[in-house]
Amino acid sequence: MTEEHPFSAAPKSPHRWLLLMMVGLGLLLVTVDITILLTALPVLTHELHASAAEGLWIVNAYPLFSTGLLLGAGTLGDRIGHRRMYLVGLVIFGLASLMAAYAASVAVLVLARVLQAVGASAMLPATLALIRVGFSDERERALAISVWACLSLVGAILGPLLGGWLLGHFHWGALFLVNVPIIAVAWLGTWFVAPEQRNPNADPWDLPSSVLALLTLSSLVLAIKTATHPPIDLGLLGAALATGLVAGLAFVRRQRRLTHPLLDFSLFRNPAFAAGVLGAVSVTFTTGGVLLGVSQRFQWVAGYTPLQSGLLASVLFIGTLPSSILGGLWLHRIGLRRLIAGGLAVGALGMLVAAQALPWHPSGLQAADEGLGWLVTGLLLAGLGLGATISVASTAIVESAPPHRAGMASSVEEVAYEFGALLSIALLGSLLTGLYTVFVQLPPGVDAAAARSISAALDIVAASGGALPDHLA
User: Fold this and answer.
1) Which residues, other chains included, contact 470 with Cβ-Cβ below 8 Å and sequence gap of 6+?
2) How far apart (Å, rounded) are the C-alpha atoms in residues 420 and 164?
């Protein structure tokens, strides 16, 4: 006999497709905001006189905090209603965007990014949870989830393009101000079309578990950044690893002892759920690193404008659009495991092809715009594979969980996405800085700071009367 839950008997919403549009706007808002900064990072670091490490924190602050908060936000949404969580998240994200737009220092901008993370952590689980409870028909729900996955990819495409265009016409604060009208439309639309559903018997929100999750992931990322950013501070590295290990063990132990855990590990016993999580981590790890690497390399080395580098990076996501929809249609024919494994294999092949355009030797730095044919071909091929993977992974995660735990399942999916991107940006971003210090040969007498970061080198060039590219001058 099936256990009844308040959410499971929800009638078919008459405004479900309008609801999909409203949650899609919120999803676009967050994904655009992530990728828009990856392309704009060189300009931000120059305008705010930030070091390479500070530049990485501008990008990392959002996923670093949102990852730890997502699990608790999903469970809280199961209890008080996903509509309410989504609306509150939109407001917080909007206020944080205004703060970021007028930030006069790196510290203020990083703080604004942290507040954006708080808002996004309330929004993101609610988007999928609202789809889960708003679409009672399985076929409609599968289509809605495919559209959701496609919209996340569209946001990833729009981010670099919109960022490049805005930086070419306005002050960098416009990168954040553009969020405000989107938030207004999404908030008003959701207020009118989203069903008000609450489950007072849902699992309670456990604050200590959220803190432990945040501490675990933050320490892990700090350890990765420290280990890949020479000179390595062994004391800091050891402290970060120890803190992450202790917090992680405490988190796992607490979840197993709680009657209502923040994360129910029994979900991972479902092969479909576990495969979906693995696929989600793999996709975002790959795409996050590509966006950062392509935008940094072709702006710093080849002198591309933010718009040009954004167009180049968006090739990856153009390939994902058709396959993300087809992945949902092929799921029941081919099977979950074959689709995820096949998609990742095609994605890996595409990355190998794209790598032919990026030689790993000093002379290659002088010809960074060569081999674009290899790069474009590889990114398109990788996009075709990764698009199918992300669509199937999302469907597997959401469909594997019962309706009364829609928020928890959505949170796990978002954590998987954020965790993959977070590790990618931290590891590969620090690796880029490390490669700079190894391969770039500076003239004798140049300030030692230039040997530690690209942004420091540009600051020295500007101070000494050297010429910067027009978009950075």
Assistant:
1) 305
2) 25
